[in-house]
Amino acid sequence: MSIHHHLSSLYLAQSDSLISFDVEGLVDQFWSNTVDGLAQGSIYALVALGYTLVYGVLKLINFAHSEVFIYGAYATWFTFYALGFRPGPTAELAIFELVGFLLLALLAAVLVSGATAVVLERVAYRPLRNRGAPRLVFLITAIGASFVLQQLIFIWRGGNPEQAIRLLRPEPVFEIFGASVTNITIVIVLASILLWLVADTFVNRTRFGRGIRAVAQDPDTATLMGVNKERVIMMTFLIGGLLAGAAALFYMMKIPQGAAYQGGFLLGIKAFTAAVLGGIGNLRGALLGGLLLGLMENYGQSLFGGEWRDVVAFVLLVLILMFRPTGILGESLGKARV
Amino acid sequence: MTTTTTKTTTTTGRRSLGEWWNNLNRFQQWAILIPLVVFIYALPELNPPIITTEPGYDFPIAMFEVARYALIAIGLNVVVGQAGLLDLGYVGFFAIGAYVAALFTSPDSALTKLPFLAVLPIAMAITMVFGVILGSPTLRLRGDYLAIVTLGFGEIVRLLADNLEPLRGNQGFQQVGHPPGTHADGTPIFNNTDGTPWYWLTVTIIILILVLVGNLERSRVGRSWVAIRDDEDAAAIMGVNTFKFKIWAFVIGAAIGGLSGALYAGQLAFVNNQKFDVVTSMLFLAAVILGGSGNKVGVILGAIIVAYIPARFLGIAEYRYLIFGLALIVLMIFRPQGLLGARQRLLTYGRQAYQRLLGRGEQISHDASVSTDRNGGV
């Protein structure tokens, strides 16, 4: 009781400064923030996997990965549209219909995102690799590609986000510590962790994953050992794209107005933050970083107010890169395992 | 006669143009430079038929935009082109400069009012401080991480402009100051409908900055920048204090960015939180990369392309981000050094020594540095 009182007086003392600290709000909404942060964070984690894989293999920050993601979001929207759904109230669907349509949208999103990622690699990055261009040239190309992909949508669909099409209405399923957990949250978190498990198993347990790790560790030696480097690189982009497509569907379920032409940028930079936070090149780091970032953003939002949400993410990005650029778990895709 | 001397010379028209320029004596160089500068100053008054952007876009204003971009490109070139540090948040410095100008001159701000011309150096000084604050912890990072940190910095500056109450968000600052002077009828010479005085002011500043930056490039500082850009480890081994010179590049670039931001605020007479987004940063970067990072003439050319073409051809203005994005991709594949590549390369130094050994030293300046600039004649 006395602690509570102390906190609220702290809040009063701070309220007339530039940034107010709503400590009480942070305490009150702690659990609902945690639940929502986990859902948000698992979307970050899926996109972060794409950054991490490509960085691990090519040492390239694939700046255009955010556009790979947003293409998936548009694919989701157009799938719903093509199925006859229109913006407005949530449609009433039988459960098997709902699951079927969502799976269809998932398929469309992963295909579009995966294809975008592979085309991007073929058109923009491969010619540079063949010429042995320096790393900053890759980064500038990535920025250019990000511009182009973004503007193609802008020219086609204009600057306004697409009106939301909802198939699944958020309904609370159960409560933890007074915070209600919706069906959407459950679907997103469980599916994301499942997809992460699949990706992690693929990279760490399969023959092809061994190829990816080999190229990440030493491309030349890997080539001498019979690994097809070009195929590995294409595969890496494809996996990243597929995961980004899945993330796009979850994103559209959670944030219905999400399909906007520059909508990928912010999510992309946050997912990159998540990847660096966990340790870029590290699949487990991407999951950890994504979840942590989602949580911290939500706590920060409660503490400082909604308009500071993005600032929290950016400040975190700058601080990690300054003080611990290897992240929490370290950079590890290329590390040898026995 | 000069282009065929060595096999290492990239025998392009540009290289021979540069050599041609260096082989002119000082008098001949001035004979070309002075009419050129006069022509540049006279441009908004001449309003030449094909070059003009009217009726779609006021020509003097367009010329000011071009000059502003040129100034930004010269500043960003110190960071990206000279020292090889990829800065994706340059718009942050630009924004800080604009806000400093607004805070010290607009009646909407509570701070003491100062004359506009006094605010310009203050804006530069404050952006330099921000440059040190951002640069000192981050410049030890590797190149791509530095790019992302600067990107984050640019976004933080923009969000602070959105969120901090004294910066007035979208409402912004009206009546930002301008340099003194009035016409005969009492209206101020520097107003926001007439671009010509602003253009002249900016061109004058550009010439001053070019001389300053040019001298820096030919000094030990400039040689250190080139060494760091071409091979940081080798430079460090040779005793170059890489961190110190990187900070210098970063801070000088920041100051020029702040200066151009203050000019922008003055011409528009209004500052709010718009126009400081990442896309603008990328456009600045595109100007530097397209023109040829590391080459002052090149980046000015790049700035002219980026600022002038959308104003001249309004039909494609909407597609400019797409076009410049495509141009970046294509350029990086086929001509990564930009339209006019950097002239100062470590190889150039080697080539010079080689030529001198063969008794061809008279073609190049006596100075050990490569002086391919206007003052570097024999």
From TrEMBL, chain B:
* Pfam families (UniProt xref): BPD_transp_2
Recorded hits in InterPro entries, A to Z, give: ABC_transp_permease, LivM-like
Query: According to Swiss-Prot or TrEMBL, what is its membrane topology?
Result: Multi-pass membrane protein
- List membrane-spanning regions: 27-43, 69-102, 114-133, 198-216, 247-270, 282-309, 321-340
| A GO MF label | branched-chain amino acid transmembrane transporter activity
Q: Which PANTHER family match?
A: HIGH-AFFINITY BRANCHED-CHAIN AMINO ACID TRANSPORT PROTEIN BRAE, HIGH-AFFINITY BRANCHED-CHAIN AMINO ACID TRANSPORT SYSTEM PERMEASE
Q: Can you name a GO cellular component term?
A: plasma membrane
Name the chain's protein.
Branched-chain amino acid ABC transporter
Lineage of the native species? Bacteria, Bacillati, Actinomycetota, Actinomycetes, Pseudonocardiales
Instruction: Name the domain of life.
Output: Bacteria
Q: Please tell me where this protein is predominantly located.
A: membrane
Localization, per the record, is: Cell membrane
What UniProt keywords apply to this chain's record, in alphabetical order?
Cell membrane, Membrane, Transmembrane, Transmembrane helix
